[in-house]
Amino acid sequence: MSEPARIVHRLPLDGVHVMHVEEYGNPAGLPALVLHGGPGSGGSPLQRAGLDPARWRILCPDQRGAGRSTPRGAIEHNTLPHLLADLRLLRAQLRVQRWLVVGGSWGATLALLHAIDAPQAAAGLVLRNPFLARAEDIARFFAAAVASGAPGWAGLLRQAASARQPLPAFLADLFAGAPMAAQREAAACWWDGEQRLAGGPAAAPDEEALQRLVDRYRIQSHYLSNGCWLAPQTLLQRCAQLPAIPIEIVQGLQDRICPPEGAQALAQAIGGHAVLRRVEDAGHDPAQPAMLQAMARAVQACAAAAFQR
Length: 309
Known about the structure:
Layout: E1 7-12, E2 18-25, E3 30-35, E4 56-61, H1 80-93, E5 99-104, H2 106-117, E6 122-128, H3 135-147, H4 153-162, H5 167-177, H6 180-198, H7 207-225, H8 235-238, E7 247-252, H9 260-270, E8 274-279, H10 289-306
Parallel strand pairs: 3-4, 3-5, 5-6, 6-7, 7-8
Antiparallel strand pairs: 1-2, 2-4
């Protein structure tokens, strides 16, 4: 069982969404913002591994529609610009001047974009297995899921072809409006394929977990089918706008969801103030021991550089 939150914040965002934020650690400590992946996954204790609660004030928001934010699974008023505005509001509400930003996968994408959007806010970035969100990255992910051997993906691909839609657009439409039984079947298939790629446990989700997955994949397919709202500039192109802050990139070399080539391209795009740490015995799963150790080292190194400037 995960530890109880020290403080829970409920932050109204507009007339629809309310952001759930959990705060841990030392209220007088160095601020750290922890961004979950997905999009749509929600927070978990693993994402703040490496942050000593005696030293850090750890802030863990669930992004719009994700985790315990409400309404869960809602895609209305849920785009990248909304998420960036939410982080600006959160920082103002909690009166944080500068924070270390930690994110994995999509959380790393959002961390980079937040640093570009609010350069005065980010003291440093720790990025695990970054997702670049290019068209080829999205296509590669779905191709790998189809090839993972998980039952059902081939059927989804055939349905998308029959509907004359790209697979991401077909899935977005399915999770936005298909009968719930079809959404649950697709969510179970997606989860199975994702777990096979990540090397995590492949146990089937129970009924409650399956409904959470439906909501998660509704958001994820919504973002992926829209290219995560990054056009016309790619994430790599936007890196030229990053502030000159310390950036640690931690990449599992066995990752089949966000392959190592992406981290290498990101480090090259950022330039000299990015450190790329390659982790031999790790994939996409943040719980792998080698990844946990590498993330702890990256947090320590980035904090030493970020808060002694």
